[in-house]
Amino acid sequence: MAIEVLKERYSSRIREVVLGATPEQGGTRTHTITIGGDSTLPFLHFEGEVPHRPVVAVEVLDRVPEWSPTLTKYYEDVLDDPAAWAKKAVEQYAADLIYLKLQSADPELGDSSPEQCARTVKDVLGAVGVPLIVVGSGNEEKDNQVLPAVAEAAAGENLLLGIATQDNYKTLTAACMVHKHNIIAQSPIDINICKQLNILISEMNLPLDRIVIDTSIGALGYGIEYSYSIMERTRLGGLTGDKMLGMPVFCNVGYEVGRTKEFNAGVAEFPGWGPQEERGIVWEAMTATALLQAGGHIVVMRHPEAIKLVKKNIDAMMQKNGF
Amino acid sequence: MSRCRVTFLPDNRTLEVEEGLDLLRVAAMAGIELKSSCGGEGTCGRCAVAIKEGRALVGQGNLSRKNREAGYVLACRTLVQGDLVVEIPAASRMAEHQVLLEKIEKKEILAEVEKDPLEKYGLEPFSRKLTVELTEPTIYENASDLSRLVLGLQALTGTEGITISLAAARTLPEVLRQGNWQVTVTMVEQDGRGEIIQVEPGRATKPSYGLAIDIGTTTVVVLLVDTSTGLTIDRAGTHNKQFRFGDDVITRIIYATEESGGQQELQRAVLDTINELVDRLLVKNGLTPGDVHSVVTAGNTTMAHLFLGIWPGYIRLEPYIPAAAVFPVVRGKDLGLHVHPEALVLTYPAVASYVGGDIVSGALVVDIANSEELTLFIDIGTNGEMVLGNKDLLVSAACSAGPAFEGGGISCGMRATPGAIQRLEIDPRLEVKLDTIGGEKPMGICGTGLVDSLAKLREAGVIDRTGKFQPGLDGARRREGNDGPEFVLSWSQESGIGKDVVITEADVKNVIRAKGAIFAGIRSLLQTVEMPVEAIERIYIAGGFGNFLNLRDTVEIGMLPDVPAERYSFVGNTSVKGARVALLSQRAFREALELARKMTYLELSLGTTFMDEFTLALFLPHTDLELFPSVQK
Questions:
Q1: Does a structural domain hold residue A322?
Q2: pLDDT (tens digit per residue) in B47-70
Q3: Closest partner residue to A196 among B470, B472, B623, by Cβ?
Q4: ipTM of this predicted complex?
Q5: Domains and CATH numbers, chain B
Q6: Rounded distance between C-alpha atoms, residue A2 and residue B10, angstroms
Q7: How many interchain CB pairs under 8 A, A with B?
Q8: How many whole angstroms separate alpha carbon B416 and alpha carbon B59?
């Protein structure tokens, strides 16, 4: 029986954002990564173009994290050395990008100076050739000192810097403007605020193709359906011509999954739940693949086995299905 | 209970009251109106007074530290314990409302348009005087005085079934003979039936007068109208005395229904307000209450209930049902109005609990029900009510904009009275130029000024599109206040209240919510008829803003649709205009009844449309910048 495939045609496409810069472009990366550019919903190759595959960024901290041992055992030898950690993530776990969180800048967690943080970023840049995502500690006041210093020290590298929020976007936007970086604009699962923040940032004259949006996510079982629905609405808005919604989407999966009970509880606590590590891997991989279906472009991940599964899934989803 | 003597300064007004009364009440008894947005709950902090001499029991309330340190107490929380001398600072006093007459001629400022809707209906007033000549009775032609008069009137007017009031009947025999069978009759008409309510010998010198009254939540306006010519002889306006029971209808309904005697107090307050205005008009024009024979009032549904003494309790409670939407016609004596005891008192019909007679009145004035063009009528006030439609359909809704545009809930907010900042300029060095009503020293900000402030603060970069004050700005005017960031519009040495006039971040967010509610209401109405914003061909703006509106600013902050300026008209107080038309044309009043019946009411609290639209509108001008093409830079 012949099947007629209904195809939707959208008036617009998601913006492309280029991360990293090679020596010819003024940076030191071995290659750049382009995300976005889709003219259809995720992976619907028969309907439109999906020019760039989604990418996996691997999370690296600048201090020893309080993570579950089922995770830290893979990074045991490098946990106190962000550069070595990043190198291992790229070489052994096939990270497309490194997501470096400058957690030690938090006044409660080490209070590293802006200069120290900038040095860490330089070290990581020296250790790997992939483009970098760098985010602050989450302490707004401190981040407003740290991130401009990082932006300056890494001028030319075309980093992806975060996190800008509706209450605190000016300093980071200005730093990205001056030193030519990209920005992560985060909104609290609210499509209106997502759009408003993009307007606010672009009105400071940062071009729209330098903005990556983080619509905020929940892990599987922790409100993922809300994230899914907002991401889908954002994508549909972007495809139907709303230029303030048509940005690639950033999903901080590792962090969200890393704080679920399913990831951290031992077998003794919940015998019926199966082995802890396997459970955690599946949880992280499921969350990431679901969000890729919703329209994620960058997923930040932690567990090497979960990364493997997600990359395999991306390979499969990027196969054109020949309709 | 012992009696205490309380003297208020600087009025130097003294009265004796019972011990234990609060000063807010005592001041009201002395005829001094204090500001009180919360209705004497001790939460708004506006009724600050100073005890100069004597003993009082001072209770806790929300009084600013500055005022407390300056020795002020809250009048509503202070109970009389003995003889007292109390000083009332200007800032706590309710300003005398003045009907603004000045017209400001500036580009893109909408001046009120004057077009008399009465032309369409023709003069057919509810009360009129008729002079008739009767033949003297004889022993052969011995019909009663009344039959003689009724026959004469029927021949003159064609009106059937004319009756007479008892009071008029009692005077009839003497008056007829005194006038030598020429009399002037005052007749009121209702549903095609006439009633004689007064007879005067001979030809009367004065016509029958009528009153058109707008009973607003905030202000009351009375027009004195000559029903024989349709001319408005005089007008007077003041704030509604119900103000001391709260700013908005909800607070007042709560007071009316939960305080013992509350409903009576509120009715008394509005009747007092009206009677004072009527007295003022009568004295000024050499008239007496007996000269006024018809009254038409227009007000929102709650005001109509309170005015007539009808229980308003269910208006506030889900599913928001008013006791009546069409109100009984009563007589002046039923309410104790300072008019002829038998004068007809008509009340404009309402559509629903939150779309009242004032809106029906406005819709009649702008003649939306006969319009070919898709027309939007908005009354911008505490309850942004709106009607969208044309000759084929009419949808109405009320969005709770809050009292911000009338100065409520704003730290230096005030109504459009002298001293209110109505326009301002902020230059790049953050220096400010102000324009106040009456050119007086700035005392606060009115609705127009608030709209202007938002537009100008945003242009100057003091606030961003979310209304957040931006850090890192130089200038003494941008500072941290007790309630967060604020901007000084007028320094204390230049202001009329002895302290700085400021606008705070909280004020800005308040105005954004108010304007957001109005725009969301418009979009919700448009969605029910599935039309885009551009489809609106005419927009009439009424109320709330004194006598003018800066259209550019209003569109720039995203309160009103970004359509060509020529589609807008500012129609001022349409509530009182509609009351006047109905007073002078029975046909217009019948049409108003029909109009109220035809209007579909859209309950915005149902479904998610309004809330979705509201969140989209909490941005300057709007999250969808495409809706405001002329504002985009």
A1: no
A2: 888 888 888 888 888 887 777 877
A3: B623
A4: 0.77
A5: 3-92 (3.10.20.30), 126-201 (3.10.20.880), 210-347 (3.30.420.480), 366-633 (no CATH)
A6: 94
A7: 26
A8: 32
